[in-house]
Protein 1
Amino acid sequence: MRRSLPIAITVVLGLLLLLDFVVINPTLAGLSEAILELVIVLAAAAAVAGGIALVLHHGRNLAERGEDLPGSVVLLAGFGVMLAAGFYPGSGGAGDPTVRWLVAAVLAPLVAALFAMLFVFLLRATGRGLLLRPRQTAVMVAAACVVVIFLLPVGGPLGGWLASAASWTQQVPMAGVFRGLLIGVAVVTAVQAARILLALDGADD
Amino acid sequence: MAPMTEPPADSAAAEPADAEGAAEDVRPPEYRGRSLGLARRGLPLWWLLLLALVGAGVLVGPSIEHEADALANPDPAAADAVGQAFGQLPPGALVLVAMDADLGTYPEIRGTTVTALEDLLRRGASLAFVSVSVEGRAIAAAQLEALRSDGVPAERLLDLGFVSGAEAGMVRLVDGALRPGMSGPLPALVAQRGGGIGAFDLILLVGGSDIGPRTWVEQVGTRLPARPMVAIAPTFAQPELAPYLRTGQLSGLLATIRDDAAYVRGTTTGDSSGLLPSAFALRIGMLVALVVLLRQLALALPRLRGGSPAPEAVEQ
């Protein structure tokens, strides 16, 4: 009973949303809209709960003098500053100049810097990969080299040839592989969804 | 007298700094004392030199290259498709900008996004911004403010805000995009046309690594198949979005730097060099990556002929 109730709720709600997708009916539309509203409210509540849990975790870490105290201090300070900027009396929320300045001058450069470090970490990771699984990683690295060469921004006839090769690579082999992946993922998702909707998933029985 | 120990067979293992590590090193002999040992001492000098080269390229590149030199061989096909989709908009069109870029990859597509928004405004369209991702909301708020600062009339801009629930939020937008209490000429026009995404003549999808054009096509495109969608996305998203372009679910897609260069150059009336990444810096960075990858591949060649160690053993 404890397990069959969630399954029953999933089956009923899933079939309702599926029916609303294929049948035009005002009652079904109203029901599915109410379910969607509920999901949206739940998602917002989950985000707020996640934020509170994060603050409590790091607050407890500070109180108990646990690990990575500077990290907790920075996180709580950042959280507080961003909240204060978005919630002070008369604030414009996400569009407030203070929030926009914090995002543009602090958050965006920090995230961009983290992404820039991927350049170094990925190159280092290929070295590690070649140690752990040389053959598989060598294929990946060779493919990466070919793609980098094709995408080199050079002019003249050589650049034109490279650009044509890059376009062909994107439109033929890569597009084919990704189309297959997308179709495969969609089929597996549909099968799994059908198993859940029909309560055939043995793991949940 | 201290007992004599036999000298190690591997000369690399004899180095004092790596002696302890070499005793536990289960990697093949040609790798012992190499990268792991160097990693313990910090980055090798040649790595630092390559990084300095990339840094210099980023700093110096924009000042030494000319407009004509910027991003050679732009691809006009994608830009033409986007121009065609924009060209079919009716006068005074309503365009929904689904801003779900992320702060990490937005710098790559910022110039193209700004150019596309200016292009739409020049064609007389009004823009409504909505986001289902948090970072997208921050970028949308900044973009709206930038447009207002540039003198775009307030009655041509609409902020539909952030919608939580990701996919569920998108589906709800199909029937109701307006928030309670919204007033003004644009909300009134949207309400008059049904109040949902169907009220808009075109959807411009700006995506990132979180939630992106693919999700919009799957959730909204299937419910409103006649509504044209144009996507701007970072290069890594191109392979997963290209199939939707082939099926016609996307009317246009700008997802590589060559596409972006062609679109920005063909659309911007003034100097477009500040809207595109520096070709010089790109060249330097890509050449550095190529040198490192080829070097690592060359070092691994002897290993490819032999058997590889069990990954579990190396991880231990």
Note: Chain A touches chain B through 64 residues (CB under 8 Å).
Protein 2
Amino acid sequence: MTTLTSTTADTVMPLAARDAGAGFLTATGQTARRTALQYLRTPQLLLMPPILGALFLFIFRYIFGGAISTGTDIDYVDFLVSGFLVQTVLWTAMNIPAGVAEDAASGVYDRLRSLPIPRAAVMAGRSLADTALNSWAIAVTAILGVAVGFRTHADPASIVVAFALILAAIYAFTWVFISLGLVARNAQAAQAMATLIVVPPTFVSNAFVPIDSMPGWLQDFAANQPVSVIINAVRSLMLGGTDAAGVGHSTGYWVALSLAWCLGIIAVFSGLAVARFARTR
Amino acid sequence: MTPIVEARGLTKRFGTVEALAGLDLTAESGHVTALLGPNGAGKTTFISAVATLLRPDGGELRVAGIDVTSEPQRVRRVIGLAGQFASVEPAMTGRENLEFVGRLFGLDRRGARSAAAAVLDRIGLTDDANRLVRTYSGGMRRRLDLGASLVGRPQLLLLDEPTSGLDPRSRIELWDAIRNLVADGTDVLLTTQYLEEADQLARDVVIIDRGRVIAAGTPDELKDRAGRDVIEVRPRAAGDLPAVEGILTAVAAEAPRCDLDTSRVSVAADGGADQLTVVVRLLDERGIAVDDVGVRRPSLDEVFLTLTGRGAAPSTADHADPTSDAA
């Protein structure tokens, strides 16, 4: 019986396979699938980000919105939704570090590190799955944005570019929060640190209010931090040009600057995450 | 024949804690080697080094003749790791978990599917294969974790405290699974805090304390070195205690100990089983009814007390567990 089992196993396991583990693409696909299944089969993880997004959207649209002046001809709902989509990227990504820290603590990462696969693939897979989850939350938020009154007269191409830019931002910020999860001691600490990283750039930005309404000492940070830069790009793409959006420079300028930020963030934080994950203590 | 694991003067320091302090160890191919020691002894650190998860500060470490520091990727093709924590994904089914690991070992879809099926059969989880692991019991998760380390058909299986925290039945089931593997020719290096576990599974036991090997041998050799057997008698009637004490005094070289609370008389006995035969005959001749009589071998605590001069209680080096830094 024992012999029989081992013979079966021999035939299912080609000798060549024992000499080489999975390549980068297979390993990335498999680890992405694993994280995606975690999300799909844990409805809270799947539904909470869009629900939280909807809650915030309604609060700003219907509670604070009436008291906020955009300082231009733009309706507040148009101003809000075009910025809201970008800052939602961070709020959704906030869930990543806890999941990463949990994987690290549960021993899953130890097993993956002990396998004959490129270690960078594990992180690449994670980033893809998280980008997919975040994109879903953004898609729901965009639909809700239209439902609460957002209207655009921009040409379809600009809208496509706007969403492509948001996708780039999702991917970039995913790496920030993966890195955070890897350095956190546990899921709880990761969650707390994530909140601390999300709140300043989302609120001290042009997402909810025009930057000139803030005190001078805050304006420099508010105007130049990446979330505001990306919002300027998305807003001017969605509202039909920089004049309509009241964002100073040209649309091209903001898009280029946003892409530079995204690439910079990806370069720094994917490097950090991979180095941290792959390091042999 | 090349030893499956060979360590020479292995050192590893975490801050001020010396987790491995010049560890020498040779594990032969063809059977189970158990690393036995209290928390913080360096067991997990050593397993992690063998599993290429951490780099030793000094010394030499070879797995199947391959140097772990210079060729970790080759070592990873030889080993399978199952940790202290069941590192399986709760949101996937048992089958999906195994296929996932199979794919990472380089199997194609079909190969992974049949390898997973074969492993499920072997660990007795075929009937529960399509259930999400989050519905599994602790014992089933641990068996699946063991299975996951087998999908790649490793030459060397590394098990870090495979049964800690399991109930007795699950523990026995896991032991059976491990025994079957060895019968099929997989080498196993496992860590445990339980002498009984080492006794059940291993032919060679290596006792580790404070990052060093303090004794090595078969379980029986170690118990012989660790202390003497104890003959213990529990008479049915408490009134027989003095009579039992008399018998043991006559048989053994030392004065027996009488514990009135538990109605037990015990005495250290060098002759073990032979002396027990005499004791049983004498009890029978005098017509003393007993609830229990037997030779008790030394426990891990006693082994430790003898070999180190202190008990096997968790030491202050407990935080040397490298997993605490993994997060």
Note: The two ends of chain A are 42 Å apart (CA to CA).
